[in-house]
Automatic annotation (TrEMBL):
Residues 9-336 form the NADH:flavin oxidoreductase/NADH oxidase N-terminal domain. Pfam families: Oxidored_FMN, OYE-like_second_a-b, Pyr_redox_2. It comes from Gordonia jacobaea. Residues 389-485 form the FAD/NAD(P)-binding domain. Its cofactor is [4Fe-4S] cluster; FMN. Gene3D superfamilies: Aldolase class I, FAD/NAD(P)-binding domain, NAD(P)-binding Rossmann-like Domain. The keyword Iron-sulfur applies. Keywords: Flavoprotein, FMN, Iron, Iron-sulfur, Metal-binding, Oxidoreductase. CDD domains: TMADH_HD_FMN (cd02929). The keyword Ribonucleoprotein does not apply. This is NADH:flavin oxidoreductase.
Length: 700
């Protein structure tokens, strides 16, 4: 039963000519599918609509070849050829029961145009601000270019309406949209009527809003997404200046979508920012307009949502990441099933899909991005295909998810854990600095398991091969995790390095178990390049150790550029006093410290140390899996039909990958397999019927 404290969240909200049935608004967010996998995106957006989001939006949609943000895979609306994909997404959102929003974008300085090879356009002559630092420079737009831009945007509005969208965006946020670049002093040094004063810098936004409203004309609502503060001081848009912007165009759109700074500032990981972090920046702006306002803040608490509405900060609760972790969060709040919500942990593994040009994924929600490809659904799973019993060995993220999903299918499941603590690596890592929110991965699954009478959980129950064969389970899942190596093997070294037996070498497992060096000088060799090396270095430094982090790549925790936190990680460890040596490998450990080598020149060096922490690679705990397969001849007599490794016990990877692996086993158990080598649906490009050459070609 719904808690009436949350009734306000389910009030309808008028947005221009349309009405949102509640206050839950899935704001535009990227997903790594875009123009390549539009059916995949359509199914993903539809799932959210089914889950109770009143409005479901696309990601940014390129409106012209001069707005090509490749290699990133967003949606396109360059011409009518893109209409079928765009229309399919709107259709699926509507079938799910939500209003459909489309975020039209001309990316300006953010468009290297690597695919279209058109010249980028911007307020002034500047290098593009693309993620890859592409050696491309934008051309300062002429008055004719501005006229063209207005026409391109108008054409895309017409196409959006024809495709069935209910809300059409004018995008001026995140330091991405070209309109943002015109508004910001950082990028606009023009001296004509589009530069200089705030009124001039806001002119193009105003003109395009007016164009869009004229075209929409009661057929759709017009939204404006805008950065309320670039966090650059007087060098960029400021919060106080934004109040003047609202004084100039506050009534122009039907909806304001407020964001903070760049995308990196607006989607901060939980390690570096709390829920509702944007609140101080957006508070008060709603009072400057009669139009509804939506904002974000990784909202996971219904109480926080209610406070934002009741206190007049927001009209609509915007979400990207929480809607990814739990597409059905609105429905669960409405039903009063708060314990069923898969709360976002703020790890930004979802963001990495966009940066790696791959379908979106989520640590909490393993079905994200698989709705079309594999037919997975976050709230529904097929009933069991047999009366088979399943033993899951290991209660880490993979084992817990496998047991939960198998239990929901109706299988009798026995989950065993060798230790007293359930949760595996998540239980350990969530105790590290900044990672406490990650415990939600375990909490959610334990709450769900408590409700399943067909799942039995046994702690402090190590399993041997004889035990498993004796008990006679039909299917055995090995989810025993992995351990960090202490021999230096990783990406840089594929064989163990020389380590003096008198030295103290620790792994992250040792540190998380409470072990600490006897001396104060510590060298941490990070050849993993995700978050853990820097987290451990920061923790040891704050405990008083003199830490030197050595990594063979140019940047600390380099892969976290894909989760938009690399710059914050570097700042955090600098503030903690960690000395950093990049482009350097540890080549050996001797009695007094470590030997090093420059990755470029091979020049050797030495760092004195009392202890070394190796954050390199992991080894799967696959002994039980291997032993069982060595005794496969005994399976039939014991009633065992399959033995499967999942998660880190199969191949160490991210927590998200472990959860996905456990879920995949549960989804596919007893499901007939075909002979197709590709285990998921995909969209294959249709070949053009146009001739390769339209004119004769001579070869010299």
């Amino acid at each position: 039963m719904r808690d009436h404290r949350y009734d306000i969240l389910f009030e309808p909200v008028r947005i221009g000519p349309i009405t949102a049935r509640n206050r839950f608004f899935q704001v535009p967010h990227c997903n790594g599918m875009g123009y390549r996998d539009p059916s995949g995106e359509a199914a993903m957006r539809r799932t959210k609509a089914e889950g109770g989001w009143a409005v479901v939006c696309t990601e940014q949609v390129e409106i012209h070849p001069t707005s090509d943000i490749g290699p990133f895979i967003e949606l396109r609306l360059w011409d009518d050829q893109d209409m079928p994909a765009i229309a399919r997404i709107a259709e699926q959102i509507h079938e799910g029961g939500a209003l459909a929003g489309i975020e039209l974008a001309h990316n300006g300085l953010n468009s290297p145009n690597l695919i279209s090879r058109e010249t980028p356009l911007a307020p002034q002559h500047l290098p593009v601000v693309s993620w890859n630092l592409d050696p491309v420079q934008a051309r300062a737009m002429t008055k004719a270019d501005i006229v063209d831009l207005r026409k391109w945007h108008a054409d895309s509005v017409h196409r959006s309406l024809k495709a069935g969208y209910d809300i059409v965006y004018v995008y001026a946020g995140h330091a991405i949209g070209g309109l943002h670049h015109f508004l910001s002093r950082r990028y606009n040094n023009r001296t004509d009527e589009y530069g200089g004063s705030l009124e001039n810098r806001v002119r193009l936004i105003r003109e395009i809003l007016e164009d869009t409203r004229e075209i929409a004309d009661g057929k759709a609502a017009v939204a404006c997404r805008i950065s309320v503060d670039e966090l650059l001081g007087d060098d960029g848009i400021t919060r106080s200046e934004m109040e003047d912007v609202f004084g100039l165009i506050g009534e122009h759109p039907d909806l304001w979508d407020l964001v903070l700074g760049s995308w990196e500032d607006d989607s901060v990981t939980s390690r570096f920012g709390p829920e509702a972090e944007q609140e101080p920046y957006v508070t008060g702006l709603k009072q400057l307009t009669t139009k509804p306002v939506v904002g974000v803040g990784r909202f996971t608490s219904p109480d926080t949502m209610v406070r934002h509405v009741k206190s007049g900060i927001l009209d609509l609760i915007g979400a990207a990441r929480p809607s990814i972790a739990d597409p059905f969060m609105p429905n669960k709040i409405e039903r009063g099933d708060l314990a069923d919500i898969r709360e976002c942990i703020g790890c930004n593994i979802c963001v990495s899909g966009d940066f790696t040009m791959s379908p979106i994924r989520c640590t909490q929600n393993p079905t994200m991005g698989e709705e079309f490809r594999r037919g997975w659904h976050p709230e529904r799973i097929s009933v069991k295909g047999s009366d088979s019993s399943v033993l899951v060995v290991g209660a880490g993220p993979a084992g817990l998810e496998a047991a939960r999903a198998l239990g929901n299918r109706g299988y009798p499941v026995t989950l065993t854990e060798a230790s007293r603590v359930l949760g595996g690596r998540v239980a350990r890592e969530s105790k590290l600095p900044g990672l406490s929110a990650w415990i939600r991965v375990i909490d959610y699954r334990l709450q769900q398991l408590d409700r399943l009478d067909n799942v039995e959980v046994y702690r402090e129950s190590p399993m041997s091969t004889d035990d498993i064969l004796e008990y006679g389970f039909d299917h055995v899942v090995i989810a025993t995790g992995a351990s960090w190596r202490g021999d230096g093997v990783g990406r840089w070294h594929t064989h163990p390095i020389e380590i003096d037996s008198s030295t103290s070498v620790f792994t992250p497992d040792d540190i998380m178990a409470g072990a600490r060096p006897a001396g104060k000088r510590v060298v941490l060799f990070d050849d993993d390049h995700y978050y853990l090396g820097a987290v451990v270095a920061e923790m040891l430094a704050k405990e008083g150790f003199a830490v030197t982090l050595v990594t063979p790549v140019p940047q600390v925790s380099q892969w976290t550029t894909n989760t938009m936190e690399a710059h914050r990680i570097r700042a955090r460890i600098m503030e903690a006093g960690v000395d950093v040596r990049t482009d350097t490998a540890v080549t050996a450990v001797d009695a007094t410290g470590v030997q090093t080598a420059c990755r470029f020149t091979g020049r050797t060096g030495h760092l004195d140390a009392d202890a070394v922490v190796m954050v390199t690679a992991r080894l799967p705990h696959d002994e039980l899996y291997t032993q069982l397969h060595e005794r496969s001849d005994d399976w039939a007599a014991a009633g065992v039909r399959s033995v499967t490794g999942v998660g880190d016990a199969w191949a160490p990877s991210t927590i998200a990958a472990a959860v996905w692996s456990g879920h995949r086993f549960a989804e596919e158990l007893d499901v007939p397999r075909n002979d197709d080598p590709v285990p998921f649906r995909r969209e294959v490009t249709q070949l053009s019927i146009e001739p390769v050459f339209s004119t004769p070609v001579s070869v010299s």
